[in-house]
């Protein structure tokens, strides 16, 4: 049914599930609240409320045990099951450090024991694909930002350097000269290995690549190494632009995969608010199925929604019932907006180095411990 037609009364509540052991979900929510607290830092009371909620959620997620967490993973659900929670611990810890300046969060995010449990530096190319499930690349990119702009020394430098080295490898994997990921004939990188709904992963990679190029530019670093070869930062922006251009219509079908953009875009989006007509009739949940299965174009245009995207042969079926092609998601549109903002302005738009770290106190680098006394 249309969201506008939902009218719950005391006899019929919308069902919600309770969770007592959900480390991935709670740590991800903690990361979101911590990040939002920085956005709203000038509204002090609200920002503090967000930080408070983030810290409570993170403690709930880790049971206060940090890298020694011994609880169970999130319970299974019909959709969006988490493949693990250690990456969310690193992700949540990194964002909470930015939001609070409490070094215990940075200690957790950079502890080698946690990285080992997370398989942070192993597991193949999928580790470099930022998604709703996989936070490795995002967490490591955020921690690399700290190393680049804040210049940590002992005791964090070794792990932060390892994270940045891993980000360097991830950025190399995005370049077309490397065979890590296949590409369609039209040029779309197949970050989810040819499985459906590829665009949500593509936009995240475009955003991440542009962001990393901004970090390097911000410190007047002209590029990075991929094995023996040196690539300039512009290679990352070229990659990001090529993928966003593909989504906007520079593809074999000349189709924009963003609804309402361009002259040719999906007309049968898998979205109940867009597909059920507005009128005097209020369709119930099952009553709306006839509109899901209809071949008519959507009566309502969901402007700005990015659909799931084409298949590995650049093909696309504009069918509402086939959600693999036509379903828009919040996760996908979040990455799209981020990528578009990051690319706007080009290299003339300088990155704000400091605001994200406003809560972190001045750094006083500790001296490493003296070497053990040598006894002949």
Short characterization:
With 376 residues, this protein is mainly alpha-helical.
Question: What key attributes describe this structure?
Answer:
376 residues; mainly alpha; Glycosyltransferase; 2 domains; two-stranded antiparallel ribbon; 2% strand; 6hp_glycosidase-like_sf; Endoglucanase; hydrolase
Describe the model:
This is Endoglucanase. It is an enzyme of class 3 (hydrolase). Keywords: Carbohydrate metabolism, Cellulose degradation, Glycosidase, Hydrolase, Polysaccharide degradation. The chain has two domains: 21-174, no CATH class; 184-358, Glycosyltransferase (Alpha/alpha barrel), CATH 1.50.10. With 376 residues, it is mostly helical. Strands 1-2 form a two-stranded antiparallel ribbon. β1 and β2 (229-232) form a beta hairpin. The chain starts with 22 loop residues before the first helix and ends in a 33-residue tail after the last helix. The longest helix has 20 residues, at 199-218. α6 runs parallel beside α8 (199-218) and α8 packs antiparallel against α9 (233-248). It contains 13 helices and two strands; from the N terminus they run ααααααααββααααα.
Average pLDDT over all residues: 91
Low-confidence stretches: none
What order do the SSEs take from the amino end to the carboxyl end, as H and E? HHHHHHHHEEHHHHH
Number of helices: 13
Shape: globular
End-to-end Cα distance, whole Å, is: 81 Å
- Radius of gyration from the CA trace? 23 Å
Largest sheet: 2 strands, antiparallel
Q: How many strand segments?
A: 2
Relative helix content: 40-55%
Q: Strand content of the residues, in percent? A: under 5%
Classified by CATH, the class of the largest domain is Mainly Alpha
Q: Structural class from helices and strands?
A: mainly alpha
Q: Describe the strand arrangement of the main beta sheet, using strand numbers.
A: 1-2
> What is the total number of structural domains?
2
CATH architecture grouping of the largest domain: Alpha/alpha barrel
Query: What name is given to the CATH topology of the largest domain?
Result: Glycosyltransferase
Keywords: Carbohydrate metabolism, Cellulose degradation, Glycosidase, Hydrolase, Polysaccharide degradation
EC number: 3.2.1.4
GO molecular function: cellulase activity
Domain Glycoside hydrolase family: 1-340
